[in-house]
Structures are given as C-alpha cells and as structure tokens.
Amino acid sequence: MINEGGPSLKEEYIREIDDEDSEDLETSAEKESKESKKRRILKEILSNSLFLLAVFVTTLFLVKYVGQRTVVIGSSMETTLSDQDNLIVDKISYRLSDPKRFDIIVFPFSQADETYYIKRIIGLPGETVQIDYDGNIYINDELLEENYGTEVMLDPGTAAEPITLGPEQYFVLGDNRNHSSDSRTAQVGLIERSRIIGRAWIRIYPFEKFGNLDKDK
After folding, report:
1. 3-state class of 67 per DSSP?
2. What is the mean pLDDT of the chain?
3. How far apart are alpha carbons 127 and 151 in whole angstroms?
4. What is the per-residue pLDDT across 63-110, written as a single tens digit (0 to 9) for each?
5. Nearest to 213 by CA among 73, 72, 115, 108
6. Which residue in the list 91, 119, 180, 183 is annotated as catalytic?
7. Is 9 exposed, middle or buried (0-12, 13-18, 19+ CB in 10 A)?
8. Does the active-site annotation cover 93?
9. For residues 75 and 95, what is the distance between their CA atoms, to the nearest angstrom?
10. Cα–Cα distance between 15 and 100 in angstroms, integer?
11. Catalytic one among 49, 64, 75, 76?
12. Annotated catalytic, 38?
C-alpha cells in the first residue's frame, strides 16, 4: 500500500524514538547540572564554616594568650586612666619577661568574683617598701623618684611599716593615691605574679586619647 502525502510507518517510529532519546538526554543533563550546583553550594558552605571556625579559634587564642579589651571603671588611676577608658591588655609579655616598675597591670580582686583591679607596680620582688606620713615612698630605704601620684598621699596604710616582698610579690598603687584601694590595704595586699593577667598596653578609646600607655612611663 502506498502512503500518499506523509511519512512512512518506519519514519514515524524512528522519529518517536529520536524524540524520546532527546528528552532523556535533556533530563540527564538537567540532573547533572542540579547535582553540580548542589556540590558547589555544599563546598561553599563547608569553606565558609571552616573559615568562621578558624576565626573563632584564633579569637579565643588571642583573647586567652595575647591580648584582650578591658574597660576602666572608677577613678583610682586618674589622671593616667579615666573612668570608661577602653584598653588593650597585653597578656603575652609577662610570659617572656618579668613585670617592671611602673608597669600598669590588671589582676583579679581576690575577694569578689569577676572583679579586676588595675594598678601601677611600685615595689618589685625582694624589695622593702615603706611610705611615710608625708606621702614619700621608700624602696630599700631609698626615696623613690616618681610623679604618678596626683597629690600627696595622706594614708600610708599598712606600708607605714616596712613591707618586704617575697620572690614573686609586687606592691601596687593607684595613681589617684587618696582614692585608691591598693597594696596599702589588707583587702588587696601584695600581688603574686601568678595573679597578674597582663599589663595595660594601649588605650583605644576615647579616640582622642588613643595611644601606647608605655609612653607615660
């Protein structure tokens, strides 16, 4: 029989098969594209997660071992430091060298949790410290030349009598001598080196006072 004006049955069959194969190829390509996109997204998520983890671990390391931000509360270190000054505390220097006279240090207050004091080192291990009623400070019976106190010290406290420091002990004072609780009081006393968290290094706020605190030594 002659099929006039149209494709043969064989041609119809071939055409239908070709169309089905084309649809299968398109479906397969779409699947591969979706899988590739999923893999790319998962890779980005993993990469970002690892980056954030690295930042978090680095931050913890820096805060615990290198330096941390702290805020001054109170006026005991006036005029060197003021209430609400923001500082960076250097926590690594004392792992490499000994604290020095006139360093400003941060240490925990032994009689209250989560309370930290910031004071200036005056007496070093092995020295004998005494303060007379004229406000003069003596180290091993020699007058200490310093001008950090804002005014004449009125109360020598326990240092009215000679205090000899142990091999790991430090005597500290606030610069605002008449408004400071420090090594002259039994509540604070002498500071063991193991209690020192670090030294006040840089003031970062207020911005107009930004700078290294060592320049004042």
Report:
1. strand
2. 83
3. 24
4. 555 668 889 999 999 999 999 999 999 999 999 999 999 999 999 987
5. 72
6. 119
7. exposed
8. no
9. 29
10. 93
11. 76
12. no
